[in-house]
Amino acid sequence: MTKPTDELIRRIRSDMLDSFDEELEMELDDGHSSGLDAPTQADQDARKMYFRELFRLQGELVKLQDWVMHTGHKVVVLFEGRDAAGKGGAIKRITQRLNPRVCRVAALPAPNDRERTQWYFQRYVSHLPAAGEIVLFDRSWYNRAGVERVMGFCNDEQYSRFLGRIHDPLKQWKLSPMDLESRSRWEDYTRAKEVMLERTHTPESPWWVVHAVDKKKARLNCIHHLLSQVPYHEIEHAPVHLPERVRNPEYIRGAVPHEILVPQVY
């Protein structure tokens, strides 16, 4: 092999390792450390399966993205659920390898005083996709039938999901006063969810329930099911050929002024 080829392979491998590290950092941020500290063989096998399937499914999501752009379809996916149910983690893995100009996330805060006087759906309209776009709503207009109605989030069994947010300074921003005040309203929220599903589940716009006891498996199941709902296919692209770099022998690159360099602390 020539040296340029060796360098190219090194860079590609480095990019792939960066992708792995990015997912690993997200895993640590989510508090999933199984398989990292003194892992058992079962832990190692589970992690290998998870990463292998995740990267394969993310490759399919890229094909879906290309198809949406090529055909001009508009895709809307709504995520609803109690806080700490895993919505954010699933959304992160869906968008992780996609073009943010094509696939974006809409996570609206609580309505302000002016928005409370509007038609409830009105503030969501501007976030709907144009042709060739995918929008993932992290909670949606159906939120009014659930959280905003009863302020219910979790029961005692699931309370431990909040402990990391309480004790980790990097996660405390995820907790709101409403989260802390509404733990006792689990059954009210469940009833509201059941009514919402009964009234809004239609063949044209169905709801799908993802079991999320194991969040890793939940992410894989969620992405797999999303892909199964869209009749996408791979779009052929013309081969990409990088042009040769134009070099001007008269140009001499100037040194970067020392005072504007970021200190290399690491």
The major pleated sheet works out as: 3 strands, parallel
Unreliable spans are 148-160
| Number of beta-strand segments | 3
Average pLDDT:
81
As laid out across the biggest beta sheet, the strand order is: 1-3-2
- Whole-angstrom Rg: 23 Å
- CA-CA gap between termini: 33 Å
The amount of helix comes to 40-55%
In short:
The chain is mainly α and 266 residues long.
Could you explain the architecture of this structure?
This protein has helices at residues 3-29, 41-71, 87-95, 113-116, 122-125, 147-150, 160-167, 177-181, 186-200, 215-228; strands at residues 74-79, 103-106, 133-138. It has a 3-stranded parallel sheet with strand order 1-3-2, with helices on one face. By secondary structure, it is mostly helical. The chain contains 10 helices and 3 strands; from the N terminus they run ααβαβααβααααα. The chain is globular and about 70 Å long. The two termini are 33 Å apart.
